[in-house]
Amino acid sequence: MSELATAKSTNEDHIQSVPVFGYELIREVLLQDLLGNDAPEILYWAGKRLARKYPLESAGHIAEFFQNAGWGSLSIKNETKNEIEMELTSPLIAERCKKNDSCTFQLEAGFIAQQIEFQKEVICEAFEHPRKKTGKIHITVKWDKKDTPM
After folding, report:
1. What domain range includes position 110?
2. 149 part of a folded domain
3. pTM (2 decimals)?
4. 130 lies in some domain
């Protein structure tokens, strides 16, 4: 977990602001209109595809990528031999949860699943568990050691 803290502190020098309205306009309006009811599934696979273009070596690098992308602060809450529980937070996420009951974080979940798959060399799947009242997103990544990528 210290690796995640280090990524956060070293990244603070590189933060630039992006208008929230523009980001939300694309994320919550345009993408939803273009993708329709299939938006969550398509965004999950889009996240996996992005991860393939930006393979990262550690959980700390994933957290740093999230900060750089403006996706929020990512931390590991628990890890067992077959799963990792992560928490994603930011003021933008809290606001999105407050304004939109049907908002999803499947892009982020897919990205995390693919990164963990690279790192652990097993097939992974991520599940989003929004805590809408607290404005925090819990993501559980699960794998089976016997299920390796080809």
Report:
1. 2-143
2. no
3. 0.85
4. yes
State the number of CA atoms in the 13 A half-sphere of 59 facing the CB. 19
Strands (E), the chain: 73-79, 83-89, 124-131, 136-143
If you ran DSSP here, which 8-state letter would residue 29 be given? I
pLDDT at 16: 61
Strand partners of residue 78: 85
Instruction: Identify whether 148 is part of a domain.
Output: no
Residue 117 corresponds to which amino acid?
E
Number of structural domains found in the chain: 1
Two tokens, residue 99: 């304004």
In order of 14, 16, 20, 126, 139, the CA distances from 67 in angstroms are 9, 10, 15, 19, 16
Question: In this structure, is residue 117 part of a structural domain?
Answer: yes
| Degrees, nearest 5: CA angle 70-84-3 | 60
Q: What are the tens digits of pLDDT across the range 52-79?
A: 999 999 999 999 999 999 899 999 999 9
Q: What is the CATH number of the domain that holds 122?
A: 3.30.1380.20
Q: What is the spatial distance between Cα 80 and Cα 66, in angstroms, rounded to a whole number? A: 23
